[in-house]
Every structure is written in C-alpha cells, then in structure tokens.
Amino acid sequence: MKKGILISGVCLALSAYSVDSQATTVVFNDFATTSGLTLNGNTNHTFTPQDGNVLRLTQASPNQSGSAFSTTTLNASSFSTFFKFRITNPGGTLFDGNTDTGADGITFVVQSVSSSIGGLGQGIGYAGIGSSVGVEFDTWQNPYNNDPGSNHLGIDINGNVNHGSGSPNTLPISTRFDDGNIWYGWVDYNGSILEVRTNQTGVRPDAASLSRTLDLNSILGVTNAYVGFTSGTGADWGNHDILSWEYRDSYNPVNSPVPEPSTMFLLGGGLAGLAFWRRKKTV
Questions:
Q1: Of the candidates 66, 77, 79, 64, the residue with the CA atom closest to the CA atom of residue 26
Q2: Residue 204 is part of a domain; what is its CATH number?
Q3: What is the mean pLDDT of residues 5-31?
Q4: Is residue 4 in some structural domain?
Q5: Is the pLDDT reported for residue 253 higher than 70?
Q6: Containing domain of residue 92, as a range?
Q7: In the chain, fewer beta carbons within 10 Å around the N or the C end?
Q8: Cα–Cα distance list, 196 to 4, 30, 67, 154, 208 (Å)
C-alpha cells in the first residue's frame, strides 16, 4: 500500500451532452455541474481559485479513494477522449525508492461493471475493476507492481495494476504529473489499438506516447460501457483535479482543447450550469 460566465447576470451552461444520429459527445468545459456523472467515495466537484470549478477525484489527504463515471453507458467499441488535469499539494513520506512525495495519480477508465466503483492507494482507484481498461497517469513507483519509475503512463486491463516483468505497456515520463502545472491527456481507440498522448502544451502530438493492441469488446463483454476517472491516495497524497473533459463515442481524435458548445442555454436563478442535448437532423 502506498503512503500511499456569468453574462449580464445569467449563468452560462458549461457542460453538455451532444447527440446526433451517429455519435454522442460528452463535454464538460468545467465542473460547475456534474449532471450525467455518478460521483463515488471522496470525489466531489469543488471551486479552486486557480482553476474555477473542477472535478476533485481525491484531495491532498491520506487514504482517499474516488471515482466519477458516466451514469449511463456509452458506446466504447471505438472512442476518442481529451481532458485537462492538475495535481497539486503532493505530500507524505519517501519510501519504495521514490525521491519525491505525492501519490497516486489519475486513471481514465472504460468499464462495464458499474457507475459506482473504485478503490484507493497503489491501485489509483482502478485496481480490482474487472471487465475494463485503465490508462494510468501514475505518480508513485511501486516495485511490487513492476512500475518503471515514480512518474509513468500505463495501460492496464481488468483492474490489474501489476505491469509484469519488464514493465510492458508502460512509459516513464520525465516531468512529474504532480508538478502543479496543467497536463493534457488524449486517449483514442480505433477498435484495435489504444493510443495515449500527454503533454503540458495542449497541442496534440502526432505520435502516441504509448499504445497497446486490445480487443476491448471482448474485455468488456459488451459494446457499451461506463467511462470516467478514478484516483486514490495512501500514505502519500495530492489534490487530483480534472479541469475539463470531452468524450466522443467513436474514433474521432480531439485536436484542440475542449471547445465551447455550439448551442447554449442561458439560465437565471444562480444555477452554475446545465446538461443539454443537441440532435442533428438525419438525412
């Protein structure tokens, strides 16, 4: 276990569900509202002076666990997703050969089990979730998990966070995910290969940082799944915040930061946001 817009007094809708005859897009430009998500454990949406309304998966305290998943299932036979995250206030003690405090990171998860699920500590809230794929942005080295370093990407399946001999399907990242800066992540699945990209510029790299060949339909047992994020802390910790998120339920890579919704509702009465639907005409 690790130590381990407001316009003229009217609020602008900041989260959206957009639907057409072919694809569904989930967009959260921030997390003033979490409508459409199921929050579990220590996860909540909170306001920060630095980033405004964020989805805080776990706070900078020991032994936290949390997750946020789509309340309903979405197509996951192919997909593209893009998100911004920031990890702040890392703390704890040093052991397991780590040279920096802070744990345990964030995992983007696609799973067919339940919208109410998650764990803590070294499993980054993902360990033990069967019928799933998890993309970990890990901030702690666990030798017994065969982690390649204290800061790495990993692609896991069926809730197993042990990467195995030689640490396949992982990639060390030289800059710390919990350095307090904004990070950007892209995860794309074309039906056979899952690709992960990450950087601090927000410009989508041409080449994937890490990829893995997967038959996700066989892993999930279905074509639709719950999608979202998990996190956990142990004796080390940090604030794990998702700042914005877009999920497209078909392979359609996001080439820029989350866009403003093309259709907007304006509300009075102090509501911070509203989930809405936009349907394109079929021909």
A1: 79
A2: 2.60.120.200
A3: 55
A4: no
A5: yes
A6: 11-267
A7: C
A8: 25, 22, 20, 9, 6
